[in-house]
Amino acid sequence: MGADRSYAYGAAAGLLGDLILGDPRRGHPVAAFGRAAAAVERVLWHDHRGWGALHTAVCAGGAVAVGAAAERAVRRRPVASAALAAAATWAVVGGTSLAREARTIGRALEAGDVEAARARLPHLCGRDPQALDADGIARAVVESVAENTSDAVVGALVWGAVGGVPGLLGFRAVNTLDAMVGHRSPRFRRYGWASARLDDLAGWPGARLTAVLAAVAGPDPRGALHAWRADAHRHPSPNAGPVEASFAGALGVRLGGTLSYGGRVEHRPVLNGDTGRAVQVTDVDRAVRLSRRVGLLALGVTVAARRLVKGRGK
User: Fold this and answer.
1) Which of 255, 22, 285 is nearest to 153 (CA)?
2) What is the rounded CA–CA span in Å between residue 119 and residue 114?
3) Helix 240-251 to helix 221-231 angle, to the nearest 10 degrees?
4) Among residues 142, 145, 127, 133, which one has the least CA distance to residue 279?
5) What is the per-residue pLDDT across 249-295, written as a single tens digit (0 to 9) for each?
6) 190's torsion region: left (phi>0), alpha (psi -120 to 50) or beta?
7) Long-range CB contacts (< 8 A, 24+ apart) of 195-201?
8) Cα dihedral sign for 305, 223, 150, 25?
C-alpha cells in the first residue's frame, strides 16, 4: 500500500471519526496547541510585526515539524501511516462540532427561546448576541457555517492532500493562530499581522474549493455562481467572501449587512441581495446539510487529486 493510498484511507477514516465522534470534550489536540501558542506569546509579545512573525514561525513551524517527524517515523509501515493520517485528520477537522453548535442554536430559535440562542451564539462566532434578534442570529449562524466549512473542514483537507500530516497540522496551526492573535485589537494589530496574512494565504485554495463545491452540492448552482461572481469581491475578507457568497446563492438567501463584533459595528455589503430573501430559522439546518455535503465532496476531490499527482510523479 503506497503512501498516497495510506493517506487516502486515513483521511477518510479521520473524517468518518469526526462525523461519528465529533471533538472530545477534554484534551483536544487543538486546545493543547492553543495553550502552547499562548505560552509562546507571553514570552515573545512586543507591539511589533517582527516579534509577531517570530511567534507565527515558532508555533506554525513547530506544528509542521511535529507532523513531519511523526510521518517519517511510520513511513515504512502502511497501516501505521494510515492510522496517523486518520488521527491527524480527526484532530484538525471540526465539521461535526460546527454542525452541532449551529443546530443547537437553530433548535432554540425554533422553540422561540431567543435568549438561549443568544447565550449559545458565542460558542460559534464572535458576534455580539445582544444586538441580534432571532433573524439576525439565524443569519449569523448561516454565515458562520459557511465560513467555517472552509476553515474547519475543506481547507484542512486541501493542505492534507498537498502536504500529508504536516500539511494538516500546519493549516490548523495557522488557522488557530489567526483566531488567537489575528484580529485587529490594540494588542494584536501589529503582533498578529503575520498570523492574519499567513491565514489568508493558507485559506485561499480551500475557500475557492468550498465555493465551487457549494455551487455543485447546493440546490441552486446557478445562483451560487452568480452571487460568487457578483458579490464575493465586495466582502472585506478575501476568503470568507467567495464562501459566504456561494452559500448565499446556493441557499437563495441574503447574507452580510450590518453586524457587531466586540462593540464595534461593521457595515458589510449584502451578498446575493438582488435575488435572495432574508435568512429564516429553517435555513440553519439547510446550511448545515450543505456544509456536510461540501465536506464529503472535498474529501473525494482532495484525495483523488493527491493520488493523481503522486501517480504522475512516479
Assistant:
1) 22
2) 9
3) 140
4) 142
5) 999 999 998 776 666 677 789 999 999 999 999 999 999 999 999 99
6) alpha
7) 195/52, 195/55, 195/56, 198/56, 198/60, 198/174, 199/174, 199/175, 200/237, 200/238, 200/239
8) negative
Q: Which three cell numbers stand for residue 106?
A: 437553530
What's the alpha-carbon Rg for the chain, to the nearest Å? 19
pLDDT tens column, 64-106: 999 999 999 999 999 999 999 999 999 999 999 999 999 999 9
Type of residue numbered 304: A
